Amino acid sequence: MSSRIEQIIDEIEEYIDNCKFQPLSTTKIIVNKDQIDELLRELRMKTPEEIKRYQKIIDNKDAILADAQTKADTMIQEAKAKTDELVSDHEIMQQAYAQANEIVAAATEQAQQIIDSATEDANQLRMGAMGYADDLMAKVENMIGHALDNYTSKYDSLVNSLQESYDMVRNDREELRIQDETEAEFAQAMDEE
Fold first, then answer.
1. Is residue 182 a part of any domain in this protein?
2. Of all helices (H) and strands (E), which one includes residue 76?
3. How many CA atoms lie within 13 A of 97 on its CB side?
4. What range does the domain containing 111 cover?
5. Which residue of 38, 87, 99, 157 sits 20 to 30 Å from the alpha carbon of 24, by its own alpha carbon?
């Protein structure tokens, strides 16, 4: 089952794959800014929700540990109660202590196993959630870097194109000015003759 963040990332990748190339380019694409902004905005909104969801899973570790501790305490209390019931005379007392110690030892061992298992499960969930969050952020970082590279190259291309147009207009004006001056000088020379 994929998360909404993974679905959004897939949609962004599919959207980029379906974009048309710029004229005369095989590497630059034309992107609808509103569509890509909407997808990125949704991605930003969903990321905290996913992280909160995994944080709740990690937080359940404490509930599991508390439940294990409660069970262990209950077992110990039951063992103590049983011990109190068995202690009536010396012989029964000896048996009660032996049984109580066995019950307490068994309860302590079982409680420790439950706590160890719960701790291990919680740590695995936490590591999985952190790994998943890191993978998502790496994908987002990669996409943003790719978009930034695209927009930077498009901006540089636009500046270069504008500079070339500016230089061409300036040169044309200079040629017109020189031609105008030459014609004026020629006309003045003709008038002097």
1. no
2. helix 33-86
3. 5
4. 4-139
5. 38
